[in-house]
Amino acid sequence: EPEVTQTPSHQVTQMGQEVILRCVPISNHLYFYWYRQILGQKVEFLVSFYNNEISEKSEIFDDQFSVERPDGSNFTLKIRSTKLEDSAMYFCASKGDTMNTEAFFGQGTRLTVV
Amino acid sequence: GESVGLHLPTLSVQEGDNSIINCAYSNSASDYFIWYKQESGKGPQFIIDIRSNMDKRQGQRVTVLLNKTVKHLSLQIAATQPGDSAVYFCAEKGGGGSNYKLTFGKGTLLTVNP
Fold first, then answer.
1. Mean pLDDT of the region A96-102
2. From the centroid of its chain, how far is CA B96?
3. Cβ burial, residue A107 (10 Å; 0-12/13-18/19+)
4. Closest Cα in chain A, distance from residue B35 (Å)
5. B6 — pLDDT class (breaks 50, 70, 90)
6. DSSP type of residue B15
7. Which of A26, A88, A107, B91 would suit a FRET pair with A7, their CA atoms being 20 to 30 Å apart?
8. What's the pLDDT tens digit per position in B92-107?
């Protein structure tokens, strides 16, 4: 069964460092997302990406965040200068070409900023 | 503003019993709803969805009910099994005119006792 894959599963970084979280969405999907989940809290929307551009972003997704689909298969989230409060699980998701269909989530990357 | 919330943070049931998990939403513009299951350390896993033009949808052992009059969503799990133990999130699409993002509720922890 096709699945969204994310690497690494766990990333530890020092405050102020840049991190890149990687995702390989399901191959025929067209909509791509990043969500995050702070420990014990709900899943929060960060950004959606469609047709090679950001289609929507939340207030969390400030200038320190960026997304890219560099090669037609990978979808990355970059945090330029990490802060302690960026520590969370980051989930990538993708969905197909119909608006009202479910998004499939990856297993997540646990980002720990120290 | 938009919000999706759950009535109960925890639910404990006996194996074999039926479970009902509830969710309230505030945005009448929401047009699509999904229930996700999240096991510890994993990403959200799709369970069932429902569009706003429907009142009920059934899957394997699960049923979702949508009451648009009171903006209420429920997930019914028949013959609950230990493997059903997880956090269950409802999510909505279309809040605030968004066509892309899902807004998640806080989650209900379901514990199934053998």
1. 72
2. 20
3. middle
4. 10
5. very low
6. T
7. B91
8. 987 555 567 888 988 8
Rounded Cα distance between A93 and A112, Å, is 20
Structure tokens that stand for A19 in this block: 């991190």
**Residue B92 to residue A102: CA distance in whole angstroms:** 11
Q: In degrees, to the nearest 5, what angle opens at C-alpha B84 toward C-alphas B82 and B90?
A: 155
Identify the residue among A24, A41, A48, A102 best suited for mutation to test binding to B, counting B beta carbons within 10 A and taking the highest. Answer: A102
* pLDDT on residue B94: 72
DSSP string, A45-114: EEEEEETTEEEEE-TT--TTEEEE--SSS-EEEEESS--GGG-EEEEEEEE-SSTTSPPEE---EEEEE-
Report the amino acid identity of residue A34: W
